[in-house]
Design goal:
The longest helix is centred in the middle third of the chain and has 17 residues. About 20% of the residues lie in helices and about 20% in strands. The protein is globular, with a radius of gyration of 14 Å. By secondary structure, the protein is an alpha+beta fold. It has a 5-stranded antiparallel beta sheet, covered by helices on one side. The chain has 2 helices and 5 strands, in the order H-E-E-E-H-E-E.
Length: about 120
């Protein structure tokens, strides 16, 4: 298991900072966002420190698939499947990324709008 790097997410992985963890596997950790934009807002992160999907490489192919599959399972358990939900990843400053550690946002429990912003 990776220590997650030096970001706030690395500190959550190492349990140095508390988080409301909702799911964990050997490679993935999911927890509730501390500033939710919807009734259900969960972050899904790899334990391996990858700064964004843009910096992931061929060796990360299986991990990226696991992130998406785990996100879908979490959304099912949250009861979001019937009405729908959004999975988002932000890349770089123009994309709205504030933590340089790959993370998926599961956003649900309310109507999402398009375009998102």
């Amino acid at each position: 298991m990776s220590s997650g790097g030096d970001t706030i997410f690395g500190k959550i992985i190492r349990r140095e900072i508390p988080a409301q963890i909702v799911h964990e596997t050997e490679h993935v950790l999911a927890f509730r966002d501390i500033s939710p934009v919807a009734p259900s807002h969960i972050l899904v992160i790899p334990k391996k420190p990858i700064s964004s999907v843009a910096s992931a490489g061929p060796a990360d192919r299986e991990l990226l698939g696991e992130l998406l599959l785990e996100a879908a399972e979490i959304a099912r358990r949250e009861g979001l499947e019937a009405d729908g939900y959004r999975i988002v990843t932000n890349i770089g400053s123009f994309g709205g990324q504030t933590v340089p550690h790959l993370h998926l946002h599961i956003i649900g429990g309310r109507q999402c709008h398009w375009p998102p912003g």
